[in-house]
């Protein structure tokens, strides 16, 4: 079974009635409930918990982590962010959602500002699949229309994706690379744009299907940690070095 940890800063839902009306128990609860229906073992963690809910034991037992943040990026402890990055390099999958592009772990993994253009104006977004053979796109409609979302526009200051799976266009004419994959160390990363807190995006079945596919894709091929440092040569019985 795939062990998933859904991390959410859980700030907007507690201070804004319009967000609370859509996600009364938090964005993390909706995400975890949706993924649990897919057969994943899900738990949640939030900013206000001790060590932000990301203790060493939680991180070490997480196969794939989802990260949603927006207004409290700077409140995430640097040591916790670095521990998340280290686990990605060791093989943990990471799915970064919406404004998590500005999170400490994602920025550290990308090595860029991760900045972009944005506008909240109740605009329609159409997500276009530009890589239909990719596992993340399997079983999902070729395009998904979201009646209202926040606009994100290019230029998006991230490294060129290993694979571009989704591209968005908005009413104002902007386009955005909305579904990007990366590999860092032994870990797989998927950045997925939709999910502004004032819209019911994570109640959309197609959006959740994409996220579930991304969890399966990001699941590490092996839980064995890479070994580094001095080692002895491995020899066959014939005395030759094993390559």
UniProtKB/TrEMBL annotation:
Q: Give the domain of life.
A: Bacteria
Per the database record, which ranges form the ThuA-like domain? 3-218
Pfam families documented for this protein: ThuA
What protein name applies here?
Trehalose utilization protein
Query: What species was this sequence derived from?
Result: Paenibacillus hunanensis
- Which taxonomic lineage does the organism of this UniProt entry have? Bacteria, Bacillati, Bacillota, Bacilli, Bacillales
